[in-house]
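Methods — Computational structure assignment.
A single polypeptide chain was analysed. Its primary sequence is given first, followed by the predicted tertiary structure written as structure tokens.
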Amino acid sequence: MKFKRILSAALSAVMAASCLSVGAWAETNDKAENIEEAATSDSALSLTETVSAELADETEYSFGSSGVAYAPGTYDIGVSLKNVSNTANDSMAASRIVGGQLIVSDDGTARVKIELTSVTVGTITGWASDWVIYQGTSASGDIVAADGTENSDGNISEIEFDLPDNSYDGVYVNMYIAVMDMSTNAYLAFDYANDSSDDTDDGETTETTYTGTAAVAVFGYDVTVTVTVADDVITAVSVEGEAGNTTSQSKLESAAEGLSE
């Protein structure tokens, strides 16, 4: 959503730049009143509403006790396995956790996906299976089985489950350790602040393009701004005016160059 706000700001900046750049044209054509109208912002005042209509901000949902906001999407988050008796301390099997993702749906519900590996405690190495998620705020009460994905050796290398409550900073879990022939409780702690949207681990760049259009009633044409984002960095900004209007297009391109800088 932050890039949609940037896009709205970009549209505003382009509009302002294009209005100022036609000042000389307005004076020579005895149309200073047009510039005054633009400056007093009948169009500018409605620009935010126009952009909002074209680019409605996605609803954000609050997660954890700190209220970290997420729009619908997939995010990498920090996940750690803690001691069930003292959740401030790491579990002896903390290295079992490879990474985690938070998947936020349009309705605000969320799923958590966690990548797992084997763990060695002392001289014993093994995997965990039969993961269940306690639905409350302790290692007791209602449970729901997590969905498990097996690797080529038949071990559970990934689990996925519905987050019982968005306000939770983590969930209590139970797992079965086959090599020890026992079940044990633990706490999965989530670090919502340690996130990156739609990140991948394959080294490929994730690129997203945001486009917004605003009508410029004063000059009788539309302005379209396109912002390209790669791995949370704005890599390109382009601006287009009315097709065939070469004068306005050149001014808008100049404004775009300023935004890019």
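Note: The chain has a mean pLDDT of 76.
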